Amino acid sequence: MTTLNSADQLRFQEVESIGAGRQVVVSRGNGFALSATSGTIGATLGANSSIFAMRLSPTSTVNAFIERIRIEVVTIVAFTTPVTAGRRLALFRGSGAAASGGTTLSGAGSILPKRGTADTSQFTTANSGDARIATTGALTITGITYETVALAEFGLVHVGNAGNFREVIYDFGGGQAQPIQLTAGQLIAVRNPAAMDAAGTFQITVSVDWHEAPALVWS
After folding, report:
1. CA-to-CA distance for 149 and 153, rounded, in angstroms?
2. What is the residue-level pLDDT of the chain in tens, covering all 219 positions?
3. What are the domain boundaries of the chain?
4. Which of 41, 52, 73, 179 sits at 20 to 30 Å (Cα–Cα) from 132?
5. Distances (CA, A) of 61 to 118, 150, 179
6. Quick one: DSSP state of residue 84?
């Protein structure tokens, strides 16, 4: 049995032994967007802190397909050493409990339905999902287990002076890429694999585009 991921218009063709073919068109599902900015995150943020997290409802009957993530980091107060090897953020997938603390993004009006207001995301509180961003420090992540390998890393080596910034867009659904798939109870989070060095404070903006649809199973 093979599991196929939903895509913009997922098409597959099964060629039968007689040489005939049939084509199936699978709907994309419902699309959503979220964008949020943290507060000023304090100096010396401990290693492996989570500063943004969004968790698909543990009772969800659809999967989330993360197509695009934009991250922007701006330094507010300069780091003692402006150029520091290893200073970075990273995107991880995990599972387990929801994060807590920070500013919640899963209430009414925080997640934008792309097709119409009747669509409700499985990341909303109403559906037992969760999304949040840090205010001044790390989110609480009790009960969450993260994968050991990051989905993407975001270097901040050279962004140590006040006013320095860096922006990156991860286009997981473009070209030959494949969206990040989350199943019920899984989450994605922005974390710092290494501790942030002395004095520096920063602010982060995160924007996410995704759609929610059943996984397609065929055999």
Report:
1. 10
2. 444 444 444 433 333 444 455 555 556 789 999 999 999 999 999 999 999 999 999 999 999 999 999 999 999 999 999 999 999 999 999 999 999 999 999 987 789 999 877 689 999 999 999 999 999 999 999 999 999 999 999 999 999 999 999 999 999 986 657 899 999 999 999 999 999 999 999 999 999 999 999 986 443
3. 2-218
4. 179
5. 18, 26, 18
6. -
Closest Cα to residue 82, out of 198, 190, 192, 194? 198
What b/e string do you get for 29-41 counting C-beta neighbours within 10 Å, with b at 16 or more? bbbbebebebeeb
Query: Per the confidence metrics, is the pTM higher than 0.90?
Result: no
- For residue 156 the two structure tokens come to 């901040």
Pairing of strands 10-15, 130-133: unpaired
Judging by beta carbons within 10 Å of its beta carbon (0-12, 13-18, 19+), is residue 208 exposed, middle or buried? buried
